[in-house]
Design brief:
globular, two-stranded parallel sheet, about 15% strand, eight-stranded mixed sheet, alpha/beta
Length: about 350
């Protein structure tokens, strides 16, 4: 079955001490609702835009690295592998924007008016051979058309950063010979600190210089947040990084960082959660970083542990009924987000 082989080859991407022993629940933090954001690489980028569109009242800022426009696959794997990765045919952005407005009106995703002051940062490399640059450009165009078509959204900030030269990976500050490659653990040593730029774009200018991460990287029990007991196709354990200020009980922001395909902990160990660069910036900004983890499976077909951006977890996967998105909201609430009206 050729399409299974294509899937297996596609989207391959996309601190402190670790607590040993059985995974504990998520810690209760003093979260600031105005500083909750999502970011992701590849399938994680698709997951980030799904989270923002499904729950715009929660996720006011999003960073998409090497991802395409919201709703691109439309629940169809063949579309995901063609239009939403290779750009052949090109994603129909006006149709996707119209569909998002229809779904919002129907309550399937959140009220788009909640994006009035949203921040969206889109980063993609000119040498990306997995998610073609025009697909990532279509993601930027999606947000721009959404904003420009509604006067109430004129305050939305959309920053398209597509002029840098790197392959299908998350650039990190170190320099090396793998920036133009897409190889495990998909952290390209490009001499560009993507994590730092993501923090600046989503949370503003850094309040101070950064050094080594001084907080705590903990594991937590992901099964504890299954919505109504439903399987969200996640690993048993996820990770959370908690900066010293958050540990001390001060107000804390939150960044949810979605790994890419084949970049989960089972595949790359703790490379993504320790070496992507988010944790040291988290200390400077006072922002906890949640690193949820998927799991690979053959039934449903997800051999590379991707986030669901084409429908393997069921219908409504990219809206408020999506099991992974409902899991996410339960996890964020458990971290201490104040009750919503």
């Amino acid at each position: 079955m050729r399409w299974i082989s294509m899937l297996c080859l596609s989207l391959c991407v996309v601190g402190g001490p670790v607590w040993a022993g059985d995974a504990a629940p998520l810690p209760k933090l003093k979260l600031e609702p105005s500083r909750v954001a999502v970011a992701g690489l590849s399938s994680g980028a698709y997951m980030a835009t799904q989270a923002q569109l499904a729950y715009p009242e929660l996720f006011g800022a999003a960073a998409l690295v090497a991802g395409g426009p919201y709703g691109c696959a439309g629940g169809k794997l063949d579309v995901a592998l063609s239009a939403c990765m290779k750009g052949t045919p090109a994603p129909d952005v006006p149709a996707l924007v119209a569909r998002a407005r229809q779904r919002s009106a129907a309550g399937e995703i959140g009220a788009l008016s909640a994006l009035a002051h949203a921040r969206v940062y889109l980063l993609h490399g000119k040498d990306d051979a997995v998610v073609a640059p025009p697909v990532a450009e279509a993601a930027a165009t999606f947000y721009e058309q959404l904003r420009n078509g509604d006067a109430a959204l004129k305050g939305m900030q959309v920053h398209d950063d597509g002029s840098r030269v790197f392959a299908h990976n998350l650039p990190i500050a170190a320099s090396g010979d793998d920036c133009d490659k897409s190889v495990s653990p998909y952290l390209g040593r490009c001499g560009f600190d993507a994590a730092g730029e993501i923090f600046a774009q989503l949370f503003g200018k850094p309040p101070r210089a950064v050094g080594e991460a001084k907080g705590e990287l903990r594991t937590f029990d992901q099964n504890a947040y299954r919505p109504d007991g439903a399987d969200a196709f996640l690993a048993d354990e996820g990770y959370i990084y908690v900066p010293p200020s958050c540990l001390a009980g001060k107000s804390c922001g939150l960044l949810v960082a979605f790994h890419g395909c084949k970049q989960n902990a089972t595949a790359v160990g703790e490379a993504f959660v320790k070496d992507a660069g988010f944790n040291r910036w988290a200390d400077a900004y006072g922002v906890a970083v949640l690193y949820p983890q998927t799991r690979a499976s053959m039934a449903p077909l997800n051999p590379q542990a991707c986030w669901d951006w084409w429908g393997y977890s069921g219908t409504g996967y990219d809206g408020r009924q999506g099991v992974q998105l409902r899991w996410l909201v339960r996890a964020v609430d458990a971290l201490g987000l104040p009750p919503r009206r």
